[in-house]
Design brief:
The complex is a heterotrimer of chains A (about 300), B (about 300) and C (about 450). With about 300 residues, chain A is an alpha/beta fold. Chain A has 13 helices and ten strands. In chain A, about 40% of the residues lie in helices and about 20% in strands. Chain A has a six-stranded mixed beta sheet, sandwiched between helices. Chain A has a four-stranded antiparallel beta sheet with strand order 2-1-4-5, with helices on one face. In chain A, α3 packs parallel to α7 and α6 crosses α7. The longest helix of chain A is centred in the middle third of the chain and has 20 residues. In chain B, the strands form two sheets. Chain B has a two-stranded antiparallel sheet with strand order 1-4. In chain B, strands 2-3 form a two-stranded antiparallel sheet. Chain B starts with a helix and ends in a 14-residue tail after the last helix. Chain B is about 75% helix and about 5% strand. Classes of the chains: A alpha/beta (about 300), B mainly alpha (about 300), C mainly alpha (about 450). At the B-C interface, α2, α3, α4, β1 and α7 of B face α2, β1, β2, α9 and α16 of C. Chain B: Keywords: Amino-acid transport, Cell inner membrane, Cell membrane, Membrane, Transmembrane, Transmembrane helix, Transport. Chain B: Belongs to the binding-protein-dependent transport system permease family. LivHM subfamily.
Chain lengths: ~300, ~300, ~450
């Protein structure tokens, strides 16, 4: 594992909602060509971290620095939500899938390339005149969409209404849509939620493929420990808005603090080892995986 | 001269508070519905208009059967107006909004605007388009001050009646919302409808009740406006609805005390604007306030900031 | 927005399909009729009738009785047709399928319509009255198409569209009367003014939740009218602006005796003067303006901006996460919609030769909105059909004119309950990888797709 190549540098991130502290002085790093997993029990503040990163919330305190390999540094906490994707190339998916359900699969991927196509259409003027430069850009956009559709075997269903796809395909389409914005950092909010074991395996392959072929960083919130342990290069564990552990999957798995956070303080001393092997269990013990990131306060 | 200026000011204050009470009562209906199902009930202005018509019709019925005791007549007008208007409020929700829960985002709004158009024209067709005049029922009042140039500050019994009734309603209403189980269910649904449903709150009934409560208050506002101004027509719901909604936004939509406060402020602004500036543009002034509030303080005076759930 | 919560109809749906219990239906109808009786009693049964300066109470028991009886029977029939169980879903499904089939011939229907529209003045039945009505109809079609950009594509509920129509009409009237500029100069300027108003109004409000936009536009429509009535120096108040120059055929007027040194249209062609010439010219003018609006929308839907609008309508948060600037995107839809409203307003001004604030009431906004909503949000053909139903049909049924708005309102409610996206709401993708009706036939992928389609079909049943 490389130690350089820091893509995202989160420093002293704190988020308060009124009196409730959702995230408390959180610092961590995510690196390029790595999958970083953000895990923790329900209400630990994982989704809130995402919402701060992608501009849906303004952090109370803290610095979120993105080292864009091509464009330089961006301070995300100072940017409007849509500009974070537009300029800093950070893309995300949502815990409750947010596709454009009445639009076709292909159209979903075209909307993801909105900014590039707008520029190519010269803010619609060139598009209305159907200039060759716009036609070229549109063709390229369709090619990119085709590439991703083939990756997740949705090519044949490109003209379906996105809302008609089965759940697992909707999840994967959302990831493709995020990839069509050509991000340097891809933030995935529980991509494996609701998938069956086979789909979950396919997802692992897709994510590893993205990491290795696109050379970008992936930040992942996940409840399913099997996914986390199999594919992540680096795990950050949150509990009650604080970081309690940070390291490789193996290190984290054996960290007593993590085990305590997941199973409470009262566990017998000799239990941990067995428990550690079984860490995927808490995702069921903690309900269905609905985590509103403490944002309701 | 200074005295008469103060007197003029005082008179506008009294008028403004009266008008404000009426707006406040309507605004509560907007704010409650918004709080619980998150939509603007465009038809609420028409519910108020229906309340005003009911008070006129009830008054005529009372005249036909020969009742001339003023307190009794007022009581009957109040109760009859409340009951029938509540029926309208309930029906509107049942027909136009309930089937659309969880539907396409714009559907309930369009349905509401359709309901508003339908109700307005229903009253126009059934009751006629001409304005309905009503002779004063409560007359007389206190003269608080008589200036050297003969200018007086008056507080009519009617205005006093409107104030007292508003305060009484607010007290009763606050009691219902904060102390009764009905009110608790209402507040629970407002916070989290799904969860409230899971723990056994009858969500449909609670939403219906919200509409009924809003309609009851609008009916009282309709009675008040009929008594205060003595003329109504089928079109009054439109502007009053606009202003009451502005009041709800100004006070902070979703907040009940905010709605009343907003109503009073809008009433005062309108009275003073008419008194000191051009009366023709008083509606423009209210609208300007709405836009300004939306730009600079979308949460209103007493509202809580909305946290976007992603 | 609202999450779905089990509705009472769920229990009814659980009943065996095909069976309905008569006592239950009777009871339900009786309850409905009871509610109707309560509602109708003070308004249908009684009437506060104006008698000179006084009010007198009239009773209309017969009307009251019939109204309640109609509600009872109507409810009964609905129950019998299993309104509460699957019939509603099925009828909506059937309609959707029909709509989809119908829309497959969109292009042909549109072409046939356009040919008919271009030849209309030559048909034997096309007298002055018919062409006049057709012109009015086309104004509403154009307004509907303009508003369709805002409501149908971008999903922004604009309840004061008539304000932009008014801005267009008044700017045209003022420019044409004060500077004596020709129609072809004033028209774009009027559109530009309307678009500017759209931007000024939209900028502060479009950042907020959708419902706020609705109420602000509603207020704005009313405010424009108040200003038009009261700003005497410019708008001439309630008296309106008269003697607005009529359009000319590229400088050739439609007058019997043109001004000194100019030539009239009939002289140009060397034919006799006929007052129909101007009427027909106006008809073609609005036809072309409307078709430009249509062509613009059809084209723009396939452009990134159009897809952006539709995406915003579907999910604004997702749009933001994809780097789209939601405010600018909405603003562009709002301004372009306003611009077409302004064009239509200019045409209205030059056609009437006289405008006053009375032409720009909320009712107009409501009619235009109803055209968009009933036709099917986003559907160009739907707008034409709805405009036909809402503008032409009332011409035939003049005796029911009084009930027109009432029926509008009720229709809006019913259509929303029945089909929340309007009658013709089937939507074709704006860009395709496969031809329409494509079914993959080979490989593992094909099996997967077919299995899923079968599952979908089973679910639909």
């Amino acid at each position: 594992m490389t130690t350089g190549n820091v893509l995202l540098d989160v420093e002293h991130l704190t988020m308060r909602f009124g009196g409730l502290v959702a995230i408390d002085d959180l610092s961590f790093e995510a690196r390029r060509n790595e999958i970083t997993a953000l895990i923790g029990p329900n209400g630990a503040g994982k989704t809130t971290v995402f919402n701060c990163l992608t501009g849906f919330y303004k952090p109370t305190v803290g610095r979120l620095k993105l080292n864009h390999p091509a464009k330089g540094d961006y301070l995300l906490e100072r940017m409007d939500g849509f500009r974070i994707t537009q300029k800093a190339d950070v893309a995300r998916t949502f815990q409750n899938i947010r596709l454009f359900p009445q639009m076709s699969v292909l159209e979903n991927l075209m909307v993801a390339q909105h900014n590039r196509l707008m520029k190519a259409s010269m803010w619609t003027v060139g598009g209305l005149l159907n200039l060759p430069s716009f036609r070229q850009a549109e063709k390229e956009a369709i090619e990119l969409a085709k590439y991703w559709l083939n990756k997740v075997s949705l090519y044949e269903r490109a003209d379906w209404e996105a809302g008609n796809l089965p759940y697992g395909d909707q999840r994967r389409l959302e990831i493709c849509r995020a990839m069509c914005t050509r991000p340097v950092l891809l933030c995935l909010d529980e991509p494996a939620a609701g998938l069956n074991p086979k789909e979950s395996l396919e997802l692992n392959e897709l994510l590893l493929g993205i990491r290795d072929e696109e050379k970008i960083g992936i930040l992942l919130i996940e409840h399913d420990m099997s996914v986390v342990m199999q594919i992540s290069d680096h795990v950050v564990v949150l509990d009650h808005g604080r970081k309690i552990s940070d390291g490789t999957p193996t290190e984290v798995k054996n960290d007593p603090a993590v085990i305590r956070a997941y199973l409470g303080e009262d566990e017998d001393e000799d239990l941990p080892k067995e428990v550690a092997n079984d860490l995927h269990m808490p995702s069921h013990a903690h309900g269905t995986g609905h985590d509103h990131g403490g944002g309701q306060g | 001269m200074g005295n008469s200026r103060v007197a003029y000011f005082l008179q506008q204050l009294i008028n403004g508070l009266t008008l404000g009470s009426i707006y406040g009562l309507i605004a509560i209906g907007y704010t409650m519905v918004y709080g619980i199902i998150g939509m603007i009930n465009f038809a609420h202005g028409e519910i108020y208009m229906i309340g005003a018509f009911l008070s006129v019709i009830t008054f005529l019925v009372l005249g036909t059967v020969g009742i001339d005791s003023v307190p009794f007549a007022l009581l009957v007008m109040l109760v009859v107006g409340m009951v029938f208007t509540a029926a309208y409020g309930w029906t509107v929700e049942r027909i136009a909004y309930r089937p659309l829960r969880g539907s396409f985002r714009l559907a309930p709004l369009i349905s509401a605007i359709g309901m508003s158009i339908a109700l307005q024209n229903y009253v126009q067709i059934t009751q006629g388009a001409r304005v309905k005049p009503l002779q004063p029922i409560i007359s007389g009042g206190f003269t608080l001050y008589t200036g050297p140039d003969g200018f007086t500050v008056q507080l009519s019994f009617l205005q006093l009646f409107i104030w007292v009734l508003t305060i009484a309603l607010m007290v009763a209403f606050t009691y219902v919302i904060t102390q009764t189980s009905m009110g608790r269910q209402q507040r629970a649904c407002e916070q989290d409808r799904k969860m409230a449903g899971l723990i056994g709150v009858n969500v449909d009934r609670t939403i219906s009740l919200t509409f009924v409560l809003g309609a009851v208050l609008a009916a009282v506002a309709g009675l008040m406006v009929t008594l205060q101004y003595g003329v109504i027509d089928f079109y009054i719901g439109f502007l009053a609805g606009m202003k009451a909604f502005t009041a709800a936004v100004l006070g902070g939509i979703g907040s009940l005390p905010g709605a009343m406060l907003g109503g009073l402020l809008i009433g005062l602004i309108e009275a003073f604007w008419s008194a000191y500036f051009t009366i023709e543009y008083k509606d423009v002034a209210t609208f300007g306030i709405l836009v300004l509030v939306l730009i600079f303080r979308p949460t209103g005076l007493l509202g809580k900031p909305e946290i976007e759930k992603v | 927005m609202a999450t779905d919560i089990a509705s009472p109809s769920a229990s009814a749906a659980a009943k065996r399909p095909g069976s309905y219990d008569l006592p239950g239906a009777l009871k339900e109808s009786a309850i409905t009729a009871g509610v109707a009786a309560v509602l109708a009693f003070p308004f249908l049964g009684l009437q506060a009738n104006n008698d000179g300066p006084e009010l007198v109470l009239l009773t209309r028991w017969e009307l009251f009785f019939w109204a309640v009886a109609v509600v009872f029977v109507g409810r009964m029939l609905l129950t019998v047709f299993r309104w509460r169980s699957d019939a509603r879903a099925k009828s909506a499904e059937g309609l959707k399928a029909f709509g989809a089939k119908f829309q497959r011939y969109n292009v042909w229907i549109g072409l046939a319509g356009a040919i008919f529209a271009f030849t209309l003045p030559m048909w034997p039945f096309a007298d002055r009255y018919v062409v006049d009505i057709a012109t009015t109809f086309l104004i509403y079609v154009m307004l509907g198409w303009g508003l369709n950009i805002v409501v149908g594509l971008a999903g922004l509920l604009d309840l004061g569209y008539v304000a932009f129509y008014a801005v267009g009409a008044y700017s045209y009237a003022l420019l044409a009367t004060m500077f004596d500029w020709s129609f072809w100069i004033c028209l774009p300027l009027a559109g530009l003014f309307a678009a500017t108003f759209g931007v000024i109004l939209g900028f502060p409000v479009l950042r907020l939740r959708g419902d706020y936009l609705a109420i602000v536009t509603l207020g704005f429509g009313e405010i424009i009218r108040v200003v038009l009535i009261n700003w005497y120096d410019v708008t001439n108040g309630p008296d309106g602006i008269g003697s607005i120059p009529r359009p000319t055929f590229f400088g050739y007027a439609f007058d019997r005796s043109p001004e000194e040194g100019t030539m009239a249209f009939h002289q140009l062609l060397g034919i006799d003067f006929d007052s129909m010439h101007r009427i027909i010219f106006l008809y073609f003018l609005i036809l072309i303006l409307a078709l430009i609006t249509n062509a613009f929308t059809l084209r723009v839907r396939k452009l990134p901006i159009g897809r952006g609008w539709e995406a915003l309508r579907e999910d604004e948060i997702a749009c933001r996460s994809l780097g789209m600037n939601p405010t600018n995107t909405k603003l562009s839809a709002f301004a372009i919609g306003a611009m077409f409203g302004g064009f239509a307003g200019s045409f209205f001004a030059t056609r009437q030769g006289f405008i006053s604030p009375e032409s720009f009431t909320f009712i107009e906004s409501a009619i235009i909105l109803a055209i968009v909503v009933l036709g099917g949000m986003g559907s160009q053909l739907g707008v034409v059909i709805a405009a036909f139903v809402l503008v032409i049909v009332p011409e035939w049924l003049r005796e029911f004119a009084e009930y027109r708005m009432l029926l509008f309102g009720l229709a809006m409610v019913l259509i929303m309950v029945w089909r929340p996206r309007g009658l013709l709401s089937h939507r074709d993708p704006t860009v395709r990888l496969h031809p329409p009706g494509y079914v993959p036939r080979h490989g593992v992928e094909a099996q997967k797709v077919q299995a899923q389609e079968a599952e979908l079909a089973a679910k639909a049943k």
